[in-house]
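Sample pair:
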Amino acid sequence: MVVLYGYDVVKEALIDQADDFSGRGILPLFRRLFKGTGILTSNGETWKQLRRFALTTLRDFGMGKRSIEERIQEETNFLVERIRNTHEKPFNPGEFLTHAVSNIICSIVFGDRFDYEDKKFLTLINLLEENTKYQSAIQTQLYNFFPTLMDFLPGPHQKMLKNVHEVDKFILEIVAKHQETWDSGCPRDFIDAFLNKMHQEEGNGHSVFTIESLTRSTLDLFLAGTGTTSTTLRHALLILHKYPKIQEKVQKEIDHVIGRDRSPCMADRSQMPYTDAVIHEVQRFIDFLPLNAPHAVIKDTKFRNYFIPKDTMIFPLLTPLLHDSREFPNPEKFDPGHFLNENGTFKKSDFFMPFSAGKRICAGEGLARMELFIFLTSILQNFTLKPVVDHKDIDIAPLITSAANNMPRPYEVSFVPR
């Protein structure tokens, strides 16, 4: 294993030598869970074709276009209404945010959103949340060191495997329904588009487009599209209700640019540098995936006078970039000024890589950015976040889990209508 520490070395590897470092390092647990057939954990030609297909299809179904924006706006209306029905009673917004964010990827992948009370939907979300907890267990971590032994021992890692199997069954049911009603001339969603591709490649014995790679790719998109954005929003609300002045400043910008009578849209973002800076600072500060997803070199590689053998696992650390004190003075402090010029305009930073960089950059980056902006501005357009404890007692430091994700501490907050 090789660890890359610092902006210069990470940029050199992931951007300047992007092809060499474009492999996915597969930990034994992920090999067992995902079998190397989806977008996230595949390599070589399989990965290239599945990723290219996913990006094209997401674009066709509106990623970066109008239709997906409308879906997010529609879902935001459901979320705002649901929050309104809490009648200012303090609660942990995590579940509401997870359901709303998950529905966006569901509408793209499965063709429809789920009702918040839908039993199958709730079961699915519960399985994912259980797995997030199981990831942190010591037995799960040990699996990566002693996979053969751990296969025979009981523990949370076995429950995790069982849960993924349940999610697989759920996806296969949806795929079967799609196959019954499939019309090649009118694809409704990602699954239909994938079935079209399978149909086109029917005579190709080496095609990477199979039912297995369909279920795995669907699972990858569902997992990635549910957890990271909803967790980032949970962090954002925790931070904003600790700092009422920052919240107030965002709300002033929302009132000035958008007002109270229409839904926020992506065209507003360019006129809202402070809000944009706050969202960037949330992502920088929380450092959601400190270790990054593991990469691998796809061939024997010469790098900075070192020889790295083919298939060596590479960890390009994100924390040293997002918390670099030369780029972000006082990196441990939450400060939207890290992304603002002196005249108040938005300031870009090459060190800002929460989605990683290079060939393996997150395929859903555009979708995630859209969701973060529209969900957060819509919530603050309609509500003021009121803490249930003194501001000084709110701890916004992320909880570091052994699953290598930084999670927000549990909290409750009141949403007061504006």
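The chain has a mean pLDDT of 92.
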